[in-house]
Design a protein that fits this description.
mainly alpha, 10 helices
């Protein structure tokens, strides 16, 4: 299966998982909270505890679109990472941090979400993408030689989103798609190019 098609299937699977999980979290469902806790522990930098999170990852794995998970380690890694970062982002938040797809609503990409960091405290004022801490972490993520190294910086940026008072949301379906593509050298550059455009580009304003 061509990589972009598989990447989109990864994103759709993650969006469905997070949609159900976020509904449960906002309804204060104890099972959803327990799932969030398991997934969050997995993204804290330690080794993955597969027996703890295996049911969350594999129980409804979409074989028709993603095939056997044993045959695509990149897909498993992208799904696990996206879910873990969502769990970290959602921790202690009273609103849904995942933007779920709606007709006509522009996707909040990782680059666009990073652009929002600090807008309310003056560190990244409206119309300027000059938050040095954010740009430094994005640059470091791009330069990191391994996927795990990139995820270390993604985790730091997600923590900044969580602590920001701007209620920053992220389209985790599209993020999961990009996490799949980033693991392939031929696609990683295109992902960071899109994120850079979303972070820095300012569309011209129109005046009546």
């Amino acid at each position: 299966m061509p990589s972009p098609i598989r990447a989109s299937a990864v994103g759709e699977y993650v969006e469905g998982k997070i949609g159900a999980l976020q509904t449960g979290i906002l309804a204060d469902n104890s099972s959803a909270r327990a799932t969030l806790s398991r997934l969050r522990r997995d993204i804290n930098g330690s080794s993955t505890n597969w027996m703890a999170i295996g049911n969350d990852i594999y129980s409804d794995w979409p074989v028709e679109s993603l095939g056997n998970p044993d045959d695509d380690a990149l897909a498993v890694k992208a799904v696990t990472t996206a879910l873990g970062l969502y769990a970290l982002h959602q921790q202690s938040q009273s609103y849904g941090v995942a933007q779920l797809r709606k007709d006509g609503e522009p996707s909040i990409s990782f680059g666009r979400a990073c652009r929002m960091i600090g807008r309310n405290n003056g560190a990244n004022p409206q119309g300027e993408a000059t938050n040095n801490g954010v740009t430094r972490r994005l640059s470091a993520a791009e330069a990191a030689p391994t996927f795990e190294g990139k995820v270390w910086f993604f985790r730091a940026l997600i923590k900044l989103m969580r602590s920001d008072d701007n209620r920053i949301a992220l389209n985790y379906g599209d993020f999961a798609r990009d996490l799949y593509l980033i693991q392939q050298s031929g696609n990683a550059n295109q992902v960071f190019q899109r994120w850079s455009c979303d972070f820095f580009y300012q569309p011209p304003t129109t005046q009546d």
